[in-house]
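Hello,

Our lab assistant flagged a job as stuck in the queue for most of the afternoon. It eventually completed. Since we weren't sure the result was trustworthy after the delay, we are filing this so someone can double-check. Below is the sequence as submitted and the structure that was eventually returned. Let us know if re-running is recommended.
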Amino acid sequence: MRNIDDYQKQYAENYPYEPNQVRYRRESILRIIEELNPPRILEIGCGYDPLFRYLDTFEKYVVVDPGKNFIDAANQFAKEHQNGDKITVVNEYFKGKTDTISDFDFVVCAGLLHELSHQQEFMQQLYEVADENTIVHVNVPNANSFHRLVAVKAGIIESVHEKSEFQKRFQQHNIFTLDQLNELAASVGFNTESDGTISFKPFTHNQMQAIIDQKILDEKSIDALAGMVEYCPSLGSEMFVNLKK
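-- returned structure --
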């Protein structure tokens, strides 16, 4: 079992460049939600910034997270939301379908799967909570990202699967390739509706933050770099799959 208290403590730190990654990840998910317009949404693992903060309308929104600090933040944001009466916040580990956690059009599991040791079981639980028309969105870091491939070429790491100190600190279990993620999803019965990568970055988090701090590139240019994934679609720093039964 993960050490949730330590994870929340690490999450609260201001790690270099990570706010940019969080924003790019959120924007990617919100674009999908805007396209699909799902009325009933489940978010598994919300951190301090649940997605419902950026959505105006929905019929039902459920957040599930084992971290008390994360849940306290989600409850406060729910109170302030115009549709707060439609938001349910559940403080527990996700274990699949329950009376509360059922009947969704869209399920978001972003930045979580790679941190778990029971990935096959978790993917099976995702499958069980989905209906025939449910889209399940899973986002994880990309082992074959440009900056990891550069690190291998430079001899900094021996393999794209080697963990960085950042990844060890956040109790990350492994780093998927897109093929491996799709194979895991297929092993429990999912079909991949679409997949891809997001947030191109040529260097590590620390190096990217140094570029910002030293004003080598401004925020607009950093955003443009992230958007270059359009031209090298397999090399983004994170990747996603949209799954369906």
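-- support follow-up --
The delay was a queue issue, not a problem with the job. The result is valid. Residues 4-244 form a domain with the Rossmann fold fold (CATH 3.40.50.150). The mean pLDDT is 91.
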